[in-house]
Automatic annotation (TrEMBL):
Superkingdom of source: Eukaryota
Annotated ranges, domain DC1: 37-81, 92-138, 147-197
Protein name: DC1 domain-containing protein
Region Disordered, residue ranges: 1-25
InterPro entries linked to this entry: C1-like_sf, DC1
Keywords on record: Repeat
């Protein structure tokens, strides 16, 4: 009766909605405070805010749970902040060991093999071949439940990525995009890009946010709209003034002096 093996039934975690990167005990994590090497000047606090952020680790978007510097607003995804130094036997690339890196190092390629987007910051890279992926992509699983569909979805092997195949229209973005694809495990035809699945894992979906594809263009549009609005307001003001106070003010504006109004 002595050596009863106290093995707890372990969930294999093949079907999961949670981000469960292998959690190695992190000596820098104290309660909900983390001292992270990428931001040594201040401790980061694990909090949840419904707003979009850019992770300063992987440079990808996120929303909801994060590690945030309360002093300067530095944000990290949970899985970037707590990324282990290496991944062994990861279901996306089980044949080789993957090591954590902070900057893309390859000269030839720095593209995530799961979502197809550029790797611009933190990631995991294979020590043997050219495989690499974002930490948020590493937090996904081969079979996952997503809130967008009632059946579990299965990540297609990279070889099965079809281009131009109408059956690969993503149910979330309905666009053609690179990267791998999740398909319904019950074979009902539902299809979801890994890059779109990532917005669910990153917390964007649950907060009603979408990944801004081209932030520069969006900023440009916003600035243009703001300018148009401002022109509209000024135009309206000038019209209103023109009817009311009369031409004196208009004249004074024209002359570049406002004092003349009181003077009259
Ligand atoms: Zn990140
Ligand atoms: Zn800080
Ligand atoms: Zn990725
Ligand atoms: Zn490899
Ligand atoms: Zn999509
Ligand atoms: Zn289905």
């Amino acid at each position: 009766m002595s050596n009863v093996t106290a093995k707890k039934p372990r969930k294999l975690g093949t079907t999961s909605t949670a981000m469960d990167l292998p959690a190695t005990p992190n000596p820098n994590l104290q309660g909900d405070q983390l001292l992270h090497f990428s931001h040594p000047q201040h401790p980061l606090l694990q909090i949840s805010l419904p707003y979009l952020f850019t992770c300063m680790g992987c440079k990808e978007y996120g929303a909801g749970r994060r590690f945030r510097c309360q002093t300067c607003g530095f944000d990290l995804h949970d899985f970037c902040a707590l990324a282990p130094p290496a991944l062994h036997n990861h279901p996306f690339h089980h044949k080789h060991q993957l090591v954590f890196f902070t900057k893309p190092g390859g000269f030839l390629r720095s593209k995530c093999d799961i979502c197809g987007k550029a790797a611009k910051g933190f990631g995991f890279r294979c020590t043997t071949c050219s495989f690499e992926m974002h930490p948020c992509c590493a937090a996904m699983r081969v079979v996952m439940n997503f809130p967008t569909h009632q059946h579990p979805l299965l990540l297609s092997p990279s070889a099965a990525v079809a281009t131009g195949d109408p059956s690969t229209v993503c149910s979330v973005c309905q666009r053609k995009r690179s990267g791998r694809v999740y398909r319904c495990a019950a074979a009902c035809g539902y299809c979801l890009h890994a890059v779109c699945a990532k917005d669910i894992v990153n917390g964007l979906y649950v907060h009603g946010l979408r990944s801004p594809d081209k932030p520069n263009n969006m900023l440009g549009t916003a600035a243009k709209l703001a300018t148009q609005a401002l022109v509209g307001i000024i135009g309206g003001l000038v019209e209103g003034i023109g009817e009311g106070i009369g031409s004196v003010l208009m004249d004074s504006i024209g002359r570049g002096s406002c004092r003349s109004i009181k003077h009259n």
